[in-house]
Design a protein that fits this description.
The complex is a heterodimer of chains A (558) and B (484).
Chain A (H helix, E strand, L loop, with lengths): L3 H11 L4 E2 L2 H7 L22 E3 L4 H13 L3 E5 L14 E5 L6 E4 L4 E4 L5 H9 L3 E2 L11 H6 L8 H4 L6 E7 L5 E4 L20 H4 L11 E8 L1 E2 L8 E2 L6 E2 L5 E7 L3 H14 L4 E4 L5 H6 L1 H7 L3 H9 L3 E7 L3 H17 L3 E4 L4 H13 L12 E6 L3 E2 H20 L11 E6 L5 E10 L4 H20 L14 H5 L6 H12 L17 H11 L4 H16 L2
Parallel strand pairs in A: 2-4, 3-4
Antiparallel strand pairs in A: 1-2, 5-6, 6-10, 7-11, 8-9, 8-10, 12-13, 14-16, 14-17, 15-16, 15-20, 18-21, 19-21, 20-21
Chain B lengths: L3 H8 L4 E2 L2 H5 L15 E3 L4 H14 L3 E4 L18 E4 L6 E5 L4 E4 L5 H10 L2 E3 L11 H6 L17 E8 L4 E3 L9 H6 L15 H5 L7 E12 L3 E9 L3 H12 L6 E5 H7 L10 E9 L4 H19 L3 E2 L1 E2 L2 E2 H8 L15 E9 L4 H14 L7 E8 L4 E10 L4 H20 L11 H6 L3 H14 L17
Parallel strand pairs in B: 2-4, 3-4
Antiparallel strand pairs in B: 1-2, 5-6, 6-10, 7-10, 8-9, 8-10, 11-13, 11-14, 12-13, 12-18, 15-16, 17-19, 18-19
Helix pairs in contact in B: 1-3, 8-10, 12-13
Classes of the chains: A alpha+beta (558), B alpha+beta (484).
């Protein structure tokens, strides 16, 4: 519950119209469209409603809200564009800070830098950037999402990464309201000149406590501004597009084309990735499970019938090791060179490729869908929901290994009728940072949440994926994001990283006012978090009991 | 004060140095730092020995200063600020643990020098991302930890590059691994599933590599690290663009980097170029942009050809003329000289015998105003224009740059040395006032860098307390206090 006095103070700080405690409004914030299953939840409703929702307009207003929360022993949690369960409150004492009124964007075209507030979407930055020949990295969930959020607080891969890197490494400065209400500016902005061109130092970089593979998901305060790198866009300043999603028609420059590349097996698939990375070609490149998730997204009903046919199934399976690459030449010379190299690489890897440019309408849909990053919502079409696993960043070989293991796990669950049949290897992922040979692949699973068996199957899949990560020493990706109980479970396997997270949390937020539910459960709440997690995911109950027993043994030592 | 016996018990008697000549040399370096000679120098050979030395320092309360490059030292970061310190010299830890051609990465110990890694990488068809002419005995990991800029900006996706993962011992005595190297599993088990310690982020929701990089040894001691390498070009063509004024090169430089068309890319004035190439017969133009174009495994000549033509158009549009050589020296010779470890006399010392550097981060479009300010300061201090080298290294794919002024002088001339020191101090303050970002705040620059950013100092002190609770790691640096 929130006291009337606290509400009054919030209204005084922000204006009454930007504070709400209406139950129906609160419920709107207790619903997030994805990933509830990682907590073992069967619906998209989160366990807790916020006690109030506030909509600040400035950093100073965010600061005021944080201070009021501290004074009234309330917790707070910020969200910008939302989408996943990690945006939701983790207890029944949380003020939700909705940052949608903070939506300013400026672009330094010369130095290829965008400075943004939290509610600026990828689509907005891209539209503004393209006018100056620039583009931004967007995460796989779509162009609606806030790049600030993925760069500071969550994860950040998307398939333009071969050109645009990936979010956590694109940061050039941050404004951060700490859990006690103090403002910390990382890098050049800390000098007070409102300049945003370098995000590390002086000396050690405090980006090191801001985030790692994953961000703190609101557990360390509120990020109110950040500078991100922009990347070249060798295409039209304002693409002429008619229609949306699958019906999009667009004028594509003559120096751009998209290719579907089919490889005979995962080993040759990996070889092709390495060769493309080394050749420094390609603008956009990703594995999109063209015969799985993408096809199911394009024609959900037909797909369910298609995979029942043994013949069609064998064709789709034979074409499973596929990726999409878009070549975007700034000049005809560049395009011709890249095209020639790609053809040679695919031939050397015993594959074949289709130039989708020869199929104009399909090309329109795919080219714009991928460049604009507007296709991701199609993943909901086949089953209503999806989940994902693995996704640890490492070499191309290890990313491919992750999808291989993921497919084995999924096939068992498909065979036992626990999962929807999507041909098992339904992974998506990309190549990052040009020639770096850095890659990631997540193994997706589409499911129908109305089917209890599929819900159960998804839970089994998530647990088995975590088990496999440990068994095969795979660096966790998505696995790090399972909520505040997870670091206590994974930490002992990974240099006790949870001990350091606890110290960071306790140092920056001794009052635990920033909702820790997707960062790390504080020591005092560890047992509650672990037991809650085990209750929803019975498969880990034994591990949880072992951890708690070990804790007790330690505390019993005089 | 710690005794020799306790240290010898960890690293062996032969690895504890007590020679006063060697120890006293650490009390000063090429910079203006003056400190206290250390009590001992120890040479550990393993992570466990490093950890034991740190634990001893914690319990006995003496400062540790990690060092891994050979002499001469510079920048004051290895000059002990407190008495009774112990230098931890890692130069004997020089294994190249693994060099992975497919994933273009090397896992190396801190004693591995640029000279050594360059040779090993070249044999595998790879190249090291090196700063401009590093000293042959410069430690690769030390350079990475100091965030020294390297000469191929298109390969720098983030400030931490080319450093990927590392193992270290924090000041707390805890051994830790960063990025994907943290596991689960041993390095060997990770290699078996195709991993190569290439993801620098994490583990989990923090990124300790960033806290140790740029820390001047104040947080812990690194015992190995993985560094990314790149393909050695099959073919390479080098160019220069000369200009009377630096401003004339800015637009062209932005363009060729925006599209990652060039490999090696930097700008120098005539003084630095002359110092780089003392054998030149003619006279260099006032400003030269140096760049190379490379061809890799597929159709290397055709790659160079299309890029050369694309760049020609950019040059034409921006009023620049690419040339293949100047003053009797070819562009290829300059690139060749600039991208190898430096043999013999360090290149900045060749012209006058000594050199003092002022460097910081800015953006290319902001550079001209710093050039004007520096010219004004040099004139005011009677410093000759012909001794002022200027090196501009675009970093992070051209989004910002390392701007470096090289004040070349004769150190044996006390009067000249005094003027250089006065110029160094005044110009540093002037540049800081104008927005220069001293991201690597050595010595007196720390006060300049942190004077307007107390929240960062407060947060750094918290981090320092967390990673080095007894304050034993290189106390006195970075405005983080001297208490041990």
């Amino acid at each position: 519950m929130i006291s009337k006095e606290a509400v009054r103070e919030l209204e005084h700080a922000l204006g009454a119209e930007f504070v709400s405690c209406e139950p129906a409004v609160m419920d709107g914030y207790a619903y997030q469209p994805t990933h509830a299953e990682i907590l073992g939840l069967e619906t998209k409703w989160c366990p807790y409603r916020p006690v109030a929702v506030v909509l600040p307009h400035t950093t100073e207003e965010v600061q005021a809200v944080v201070r009021i929360c501290n004074a009234h022993k309330l917790q707070f949690k910020a969200l910008s564009t939302g989408w996943g369960i990690w945006n939701a409150p983790g207890s029944d004492n949380v003020v939700q800070i909705d940052l949608r009124r903070m939506d300013k964007l400026t672009i330094d075209t010369k130095n290829m830098i965008a400075v943004m507030e939290p509610y600026v979407s990828g689509a907005q930055i891209q539209a503004e950037g393209m006018k100056s020949g620039l583009n931004v990295h967007m995460v796989g969930c779509g162009c609606h999402a806030s790049p600030l959020a993925s760069a500071t607080s969550l994860m950040g891969p998307g398939c333009s990464g071969i050109t645009t890197g990936y979010s956590p490494r694109n940061v050039l400065g941050v404004e951060w309201v700490l859990p006690d209400g103090e403002i910390l500016r990382l890098g050049v902005p800390g000098q007070g000149n409102d300049e945003w061109f370098y995000g590390d130092g002086p000396g050690p970089s405090l980006r090191g406590i801001m985030r790692g593979t994953l961000g703190a998901c609101g557990g360390l305060g509120v990020f109110t501004k950040c500078a991100l790198k922009l990347f070249p866009w060798p295409g039209p300043a304002q693409p002429k597009v008619e229609g949306v999603l699958m019906d999009a028609k667009v004028e594509i420059p003559g120096t751009h084309s998209s290719f579907l590349c089919f490889l005979p097996n995962l080993s040759r698939f990996a070889d092709a990735f390495y060769k493309i990375s080394n050749a420094e070609i390609g603008y956009f490149m990703g594995k999109h499970a063209i015969t799985g998730a993408l096809l199911a997204g394009c024609m959900p009903r037909a797909y369910k019938n298609l995979v029942k046919s043994e013949t069609v199934r064998s064709i789709l399976t034979a074409l499973q090791n596929t990726f999409v690459i878009i070549l975007c030449g700034r000049t005809q010379r560049e395009y011709d060179y890249q095209h020639k190299v790609l053809k040679q690489i695919i031939a050397d890897c015993e594959g074949f490729m289709l130039n989708i440019g020869h199929v104009p309408l399909l090309h329109s849909m795919l080219w714009w869908g991928f460049i604009r990053n507007s296709l991701p919502p199609a993943i909901f079409r086949a089953g209503g929901r999806f989940t994902t696993a693995f996704g640890g960043f490492e070499t191309i070989d290890q990313a491919v290994f992750q999808s291989k293991i993921g497919a084995v796990i999924k096939q068992e669950l498909i065979d036992s009728g626990d999962m929807m049949d999507d041909l098992a290897d339904n992974s998506w992922g990309g190549l990052y940072e040009g020639s770096s040979c850095l890659a990631h692949q997540e193994e997706l699973a589409i499911f129908d949440p109305r089917e209890p068996k599929q819900n159960e199957g998804v839970n089994k899949y998530i647990d088995k994926a975590m088990e496999a990560s440990t068994k095969y020493t795979i660096t966790p990706g998505i696995g790090f994001g399972g909520g505040g109980a997870v670091p206590h479970m994974l930490g002992p396997l990974i240099y006790n990283y949870h001990h350091w997270l606890l110290q960071i949390k306790e140092t920056l937020d001794p009052g635990n006012s920033a909702d820790p539910s997707f960062f790390i459960a504080p020591e005092a709440e560890k047992e509650k978090y672990l037991r809650d997690y085990a209750r929803r995911r019975p498969q880990v109950a034994r591990l949880v009991e072992d951890i708690l027993a070990a804790d007790k043994k330690r505390s019993d030592v005089p | 004060m710690v005794g020799k016996k306790a240290l010898a018990g960890i690293v062996g008697e032969e690895n504890v140095v007590t020679d006063r000549n060697i120890l006293d040399a650490f009390a000063v370096d090429k910079s203006y730092g003056e400190g206290t000679p250390p009590a001992f120098l120890v040479k550990p050979h393993s992570t466990e020995e490093v950890q034991a030395v740190i634990n001893l320092a914690k319990s006995e309360g003496f400062p540790l200063i990690p060092v891994s490059s050979g002499a001469p030292r510079d920048h004051e970061d290895t000059v002990p600020a407190c008495a009774d310190s112990v230098i931890v010299d890692l130069s004997d830890m020089k294994k190249i643990v693994r060099l992975d051609r497919r994933n273009k990465v090397a896992l190396i110990e801190p004693g591995v020098t640029f000279g050594e890694l360059h040779a090993a990488a070249k044999a595998a068809g790879l190249r090291v991302l090196m700063p401009l002419l590093p000293r042959m005995n410069k430690s690769v990991l030390a350079s990475c930890l100091e965030r020294e800029p390297f000469t191929i900006p298109k390969y720098q996706w983030d400030t931490t590059d080319p450093l990927m993962c590392m193992e270290l011992v924090f000041g707390s005595g805890d051994i830790y691994r960063t990025g994907s190297a943290a596991g689960p599993g041993s390095l060997e088990a990770q290699w078996e599933t195709g991993a190569a310690q290439k993801n620098p982020l994490g583990p989990g929701q923090w990124d300790p590599l960033r806290l140790v990089q740029g820390a001047q040894g104040t947080m812990g001691i690194v015992t190995w690290g993985s560094v990314k390498l790149e393909l050695l070009p099959r073919e390479e063509k080098c160019f220069l663009a000369a200009a009377e004024k630096m401003d004339e090169l800015i637009e062209f430089s932005y363009l060729i980097q925006k599209f990652k068309l060039v490999d090696v890319c930097f700008i120098m004035n005539a003084v630095d170029l002359a110092s780089l190439r003392m054998d030149v017969v003619g006279k260099f133009p006032p400003w030269v942009l140096v760049y190379s174009i490379s061809g890799y495994e597929y159709f290397p000549g055709e790659r160079i050809d299309y890029i050369e033509h694309d760049i020609e158009e950019m040059a034409h549009a921006t009023g620049v003329l690419p040339i293949s050589g100047v003053a009797g020296v070819s562009a290829g010779d300059i690139v060749g000289a600039a991208t190898l470890p430096c043999e013999g006399i360090y290149w900045k010392d060749r012209l006058r015998g000594d050199c003092r550097d002022i460097f910081f981060i800015t953006t290319l479009d902001r550079v001209p105003r710093f050039l004007d300010a520096m010219a004004g300061e040099a004139k005011a201090h009677g410093f000759p224009e012909g001794s002022l080298g200027i090196y501009i290294q675009p970093i992070q794919q051209g989004r910002n740059c390392h701007l470096e002024f090289n004040l070349m002088y004769d150190g044996r001339n006390a009067d000249e040395a005094g003027r250089v020191r006065a110029l160094y101090e005044t110009a540093s303050v002037r540049c800081a006032d104008m927005g220069a970002f001293f991201s690597r705040p050595y010595g007196a620059w720390a006060a300049l860098a942190y004077r307007k950013d107390q929240p960062t100092v407060k947060a750094l002190k918290m981090v320092k307390h967390m990673l080095d609770p007894k304050g034993i790691m290189n106390p006195g640096k970075l405005s983080l206090g001297t208490e041990v």
